[in-house]
Amino acid sequence: MRPRLSDIAKQAGVSEATVSRVLNDRPGVGTATRQAVLTALDVLGYERPALLRKHSAGLVGLVVPELENPIFPLFAQVISTELAAAGYTPVLCTQNPGGVTEDEYVDMLRERHVSGIVFVSGLHADTAADHQRYRDLAESGLPLVFLTGYVDGVAAPCFSCDDTLAATLAVEHLAALGHTRIGLISGPERFIPVQRKISGYTRAMADVGEPLVELTLFGVEGGAAAAGRLYDAGATAILCGSDLMALGAVQEARTRGMSVPKDISIVGYDDSPLIAYTDPPLTTLRQPVRAMATAAVRALLDEVAGQPAPTSEYLFRPELVVRGSTGPHST
User: Fold this and answer.
1) What is the dihedral of CA 172, 178, 180, 184, to 10 degrees?
2) What does the pLDDT look like over 94-140, one tens digit per residue?
3) In principle, which of 124, 162, 179, 303 could form an S-S bond with 151, CB 3.0–4.6 Å?
4) pTM higher than 0.85
5) CATH 3.40.50.2300 domain range(s) in the chain
6) Nearest to 147 by CA among 79, 92, 89
7) Which residue ranges does the record assign to the HTH lacI-type domain (predicted)?
8) 163-287 topology per CATH
9) What CATH number should be reported for the domain whose range is 5-55?
10) Can you list the positions of beta strands (E) in 273-326?
11) Quick one: average pLDDT of 67-89?
């Protein structure tokens, strides 16, 4: 489809004459204005004229599962900032139940000739999904990187927080406070991060006490429901698979008239923005989001530049952040 100067000018916030000069690669246009026009061209889905392609880095797809969990907007923010600094325009694709699927987003991104795609906690983290989709993408020559989850046999780098270590650190912290009835709440077991948390938790509990595992839906509601079952089972401390699930556990405790951390200690996972300001401030395992996201972008840009892509997974160490939601076991 032939680009309409009026549409591009409106999107970029410039005159049609300026758009014309940029599209014809004529002088007299500032760098920032030129980039604004090229970005507008990309966003509107127009193919750049051949003589301009050498001047622009282009688009990069950023596929995230949803934005309700605060950790995903944080990933998106860091990745977008790093891409923009390198001259690329991120195209954010978020998924909602019943909405556009990951595969549909990928088709759209390929139609727009993106330079590469960053997948954050997508189907690559789901062991029940068909990962051939990623092998086909990689074999087509499209640069890819994955965050949170490993895809075996795909020529693309993966960057994850060490979930096995995270669960181990949490159990060690709670055991040091005197807890032996320590429960784990997490999402469906088919997800790689969940499997790793269960593995780390189970091994750490070997010298502490009986494992108490409740798997549920991600989110506040799932955390509350699973916490209720653990409270009934006599748990005095709980490790949650996300900060949102931990907030659900706190909510359920208060519904039952329990005090956190006097009656129950709760540990989250992620260290999402604002989680330090909850009541009580949440003890949690911090994902090194900035380091992970920056490394992923740099790896993608190396791929775009034609450098060989590693096929291994890079694990980043979590940090235990102790706040007010954990305390000594009361006898």
Assistant:
1) -50
2) 987 778 899 999 999 998 889 999 999 999 999 999 999 999 999 88
3) 124
4) no
5) 59-161+289-316, 163-287
6) 79
7) 3-57
8) Rossmann fold (3.40.50)
9) 1.10.260.40
10) 283-286, 313-316, 319-321
11) 92
